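User: Good morning. I'm curious how zinc ion would be positioned relative to this chain. Could you predict the structure with it bound?
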Amino acid sequence: MNSMTDTLRSMIDEADALLIGAGGGVTSAAMDEKALISGVLSPWASKYGFSDPYRGMFAPFEDAAEFWGYISTLANAVCFEGRDEYGVYSALRFLTEGKDTFVITANTDGMLVRNGFDPKCVFESYGNMSYLQCAGSHSNEITFGEDVLKCLAASVRDGRADASLVPLCPECKGAMVPWVRSSGFFAECGKFCTEYERYDAFLRSHSLKRMLLLELGAGMETAGVIKMNFRRLCDELPNAFYCSVNIMGEETGQDLQGKSLIIRGDLRELGE
Ligand SMILES: [Zn+2]
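Assistant: Good morning! Here's the predicted structure, ligand included:
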């Protein structure tokens, strides 16, 4: 046990309900992303000069074969073979055991559910890159892409997947993309709507309780669903308390005086 774990444990103990907002910092703490960038992702990271595996998804790839070479390699390394190397997800699960908990996340790696969080209590608001959707806006359908992505990843040579394996929309035969919220069309499919409804129901049924809004490793890119959303909720809900844990510099919670705690720290400590 360390001080961050102690602090979070006592806040969780005092709360009646726990809403976690899990950002990219949780997976960055759980996995060695630098090893990914210098390892399996290095052909694309060095060519396009990125150091964040998820931002790499939006690199200006030459064509579909190179795009799917990267996406499938990333999905394989994170969604299918990625491990909670530093025990961060298992520590979080342990901390939340027995507590009425819901998690909203902007992470698309599926790590929460794969590491034991109940899928009925997780809202993947930015999608999940192991699913595919049509890039066009005619359909809100998504398909689970594990087989396709594994085949693509196995076919990669010199940074390019086998072009004959590149997935096409079964309806319009147009391009497909991973089911990840970006500037383009994002399919608000049945999975998305069901998870949103559960999240909304959790908020409504706990609105007067002592709810801990625990923001973990979330940045400004996803502020709409986590950071600003949590601060607004804290302001609106009379008995809510907001706690943010982030390794980066962080503005203070001045607007939430008496109802917030900002911890600057490395979530990797949770697994120690
Ligand atoms: Zn289509």
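Residues 134, 136, 138-139, 169, 171-172, 174 surround zinc ion (CB under 6 Å). The radius of gyration is 19 Å.
Let me know if you'd like a different ligand tried.
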